[in-house]
Amino acid sequence: MIIDSHSHLFDGGWYSSEVHQGSGRFAAAQVEKSTGVYPDVDSLTRQLLSMVTDTTGERKISNMDAAGVAKACVFTFDVGLATATEAKVSIEDQNRMVAEAAKRFPDRLIPFFAVDPRRPNGLQMFERAIKQGKMRGLKLYPPGGFFPQDTVCYAYYRKCMDYGLPVLFHSGATMAPLKARFAQPVHIDDVAADFPDLPIIIAHAGGFWWEEALGVAAFKPNVYLDLSGRQTTLTQDSSRFYAQLRRMMDTVGPWRLFFGSDSPVLDWVLPLDRWAKAFKEPDLSRCPDIKFTKEEMEMVMGKAFARLMKLEQ
After folding, report:
1. Residue % of the chain over a pLDDT of 70
2. Staple partner for 5: which of 45, 136, 258, 282, CB 3.0–4.6 Å?
3. What is the pLDDT of residue 312?
4. Domains defined for the chain, CATH in brackets
5. What secondary structure does DSSP assign to 183-209, as a single string?
6. Which residues lie below 8 Å from residue 29, measured CB to CB, with a gap of 6+?
7. Which residues have a Cβ under 8 Å from the Cβ of 39 and sit 6 or more positions away?
8. pTM for the complete prediction?
9. How far apart are CA 247 and CA 266, in angstroms?
């Protein structure tokens, strides 16, 4: 069974124009890298928004079916305090729509609650959502302007401990106007040390700081790595991708590695079905010395996340 541990529901009104512009500029730079032509950012942003908009989960389920993905963890991310204007749709309503989508597809979608911990009523919203929306975890996005070890976050970690929920941190690079320095994996090490029984997931396995993330996980057994966002490494150099995956497995074992897609955000880099195939049927022709057992890949593709989340398999 394939479980996508990191995916999004999405709508243009969920994020400010500054965030959309930053995403559009990033995408435009990727187009220029391949074609030599820097496209119109506004036009490209509108095109990308039309591709990723999905608040009900219906589009996601269709995409999952085509890729053979049985379940997916879904959430939004809260960066409203990082920009000059808040999103048109409040973070409370965004989380409500995520919960409603999960209720619509209870056997397929696993909802996490997203919030900037600096919001005055954030903790109350989180606990209410756990009780009413059956949220299964907490998603934090430090590039919005806070470090994981900021004391304002600690009440949320204690609440996760109370309810037996994991916390997922974005890590690695991000688009302007958000700031990546808040998302270096080393900052998560403090949290893992102060809350050794709290399950912590480092999203994107640290991104460009993947070795730093792996170093944190190697000495903190309550830390897990999700592999979402690493499609770019695979498309650039598959041998480098599989070498990194092998090293992660050898360091922390396959039980602490999770398949994730960041879908639909990165579907334009590599569609979900092709990303899943990279794990189901890894092409190791460019790196014949690297091997994976069927059992290892099954753990990464779903069994490990299912065990953490106590899901039926």
Report:
1. 100
2. 258
3. 77
4. 2-10+54-309 (3.20.20.140)
5. G-THHHHHHHHH-TTS-EEEGGGGGGG
6. 38
7. 28, 31, 32
8. 0.97
9. 24
